[in-house]
Amino acid sequence: MPLSFPNWTPESVIRTIYSSPINVHKNDLGLTLELSYITQQLIVCSYPVVKYPKLLYRNSLSDLVSYLTLYHGPGNWKIYNFKVEQGSADYSDENLASVLSQQSSPVGGSDGCSFASSSHGSWSISSPRGQSAVSSPDLPAELSNFIQRYGWLDHSPPPFLLLQQILDDMHEYLSQDPNRVALMHCKMGKGRSGSVVIAYLMKFMNCSLRESRDIFMNNRFRAGIIRGVTIRSQLRYLAYHELFLHIGRPLERPEILTEIARSRFKVTEVIIMNPFPHLNLDFKNCCIIVKMHVYNRSRNGLFEVLEAECNDLLFDGRLHKRTTSISVDTCVLKSDVRFSFGLRFKNNEFIDNITQKTSLSHCWLNLYWETLICSRNESLTSYTLEELRSEQGRCRDGKSFALFTIKWDDLDGAKGMLGKGVKLFESVTLRWQLL
User: Fold this and answer.
1) Where are the domains of the chain?
2) Which one of 299, 316, 327, 347 is most buried, by most CB atoms within 10 A?
3) Is 186 one of the catalytic residues?
4) What are its E.C. numbers (predicted)?
5) What's the CATH architecture for 10-229?
6) Which of 110, 109, 31, 12 is nearest to 71 (CA)?
């Protein structure tokens, strides 16, 4: 006898298959939604959409709003959108306002709330959190009660100050009522959402970094399939967050954030150890390109502040390795920076266009936190710019104070993957001064 799925639609079947790696919360409202409860108040999902064909396998915005309203109650939920890139099926603020408006007036009788669902037709069910309707928001003031957009680039960490702003906003919202929930999404509900969840657990639930990573991984993904937050730059920023929570008392944290916002830097040198270790190449025909970027104002792209070529090859007798270095004099007005490294052929444009894609590597770092990590000052106010500058001044020309060294294997590849293509060097050291 064939299996029967009377309540399943083609959309629900496809969504179930698509979300198979996800530890999906099962609801009794007749909705097929890919979402996971990390805690009772923290929910993570992939981004909801409003158009086909993505409605076949992504969450429907209408269904998601229906679920949140019915299951948690009107006014008890808020969406935090960390996805800055825009697609044709992505929802706008106007789409969300329209859904809220459509669901503001009950269509059925007084026994329950009835909504129009984009993929399940009309349905009616009693709300677990009461039967009052959602009032239609007036854009944009009241809509901020339902959504906050804090997006940044995919496969990247958030600017450190933005991360703290997100966490404090969420905590202020959730602490007002234990019945409230925050629903977070980026694209897949993995790297960006996971970074925020982990940081929240660390800051407001007193979990360690390791415990927080495990909580997110175990509640978001099925065992053994996905390891949660894995991109090295995102993990580096969570380590900064851990340092932030331990370095000062809660009352001092606003002062630390002020110091970060005020900090300015000058990048002075890039030193590359053992260039082209597995390639029979020299700097006559090719070179290693070093670039430095910061986020643009909207955080949907990058602004280039440095591009330099490594052309001169030296031999370090102490280390018995080849080295190349670039002396630069580049001022940076933000502490969050992205360094990237690539291969360029000098005399053949055709070959250069091809080889540019054979090696892609980068890393994000926060220059303030890396400066503080280099500090040997153990005073209670070692985090202040005044004390950091004083310590820098006591070093010889300030050149031996702030530096960051990273091995090739620890860099991020394209889209945050481990693979970076052709290995360009063994390690790279970046030096800068605090202005």
Assistant:
1) 10-229, 254-434
2) 299
3) yes
4) 3.1.3.67
5) Alpha-Beta Complex (3.90)
6) 31
